[in-house]
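Data card: per-record layout.
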Amino acid sequence: MGPSIFAILALIVIGYTVGSVRIVNQGNQALVERLGRYHRKLRPGLNFIVPFLDTIVWEESIRERLLDVPPQSAITRDNVSLDVDAVVYWKVLDLERTYYEIENIQDAIRELVITTLRSEIGKMPFEDTFSSRDELNQALLDQLDEATEPWGVKVTRVEVQSINPPQSVLDSMQQQQAAELKRRATVLEAEGEQQASIKRAQGTVQSIELLSQALKERPDAREILNFLIAQQYVEANQKLGESNNSKVLFMDPKFLSEGLVDLINAPTTPENNEPLPKPPNRSPRSR
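The structure for this 287-residue chain is written out next.
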């Protein structure tokens, strides 16, 4: 009789010990209720509870987690409809408040993100939704962090992933961008032509100044000028003959050639390089 009692007591002690041991993994916490009321919080590692009196009602991770919000429709301040999606990084700071203050924390955060995202998009014009994404992320983070603080939750980061306007709006944006690129190209081309014209004019002025300075130092300046004019005339006639386009001449080329020959062959005086007047034609006297 005695050994049987000891065996029964040993089994009771072993069962009580096994039933009271609870192991909580690293990165998790657990809530314990005693007789239906919150009693204490279990930390990671080996923990003991009172069987039949204590109950672990919730064990949850306190690590940072990711919540992916699917695309949601939103309307900008200038009445442009968009599809916007976002991701939220959050973690539990106070497991007790998270369990007792809100029914389903993940669904609550998701709905809060959706309503806050639509509200912030509605404050912005359409063009600012793309260029002000950082400001949009920060505004969402501030509002979500403040709203989730009573739930014992910390929202650490919010990122708007994509903003998708309707196809008609995309087509209009592409046309506007193409027109802007064309306008910039036209302006750059006009500026380039203007600068080139200025450079050519400056080069011509410099060439004339150099030529004038060189001719001042030479006694045969007129002959050099005649040669340069004749050279330009010959090159112009050559280009005129090589061109396949139609030509319209307002002067007889023969007269131009004869005038050029007279200019080249005009005698000059050694003093001032001026052409000497030709002697007048005299008819022979009849005797």
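Known properties of this structure: The chain has eight helices and eight strands. Residues 167-217 form one domain.

See the next section for split statistics.
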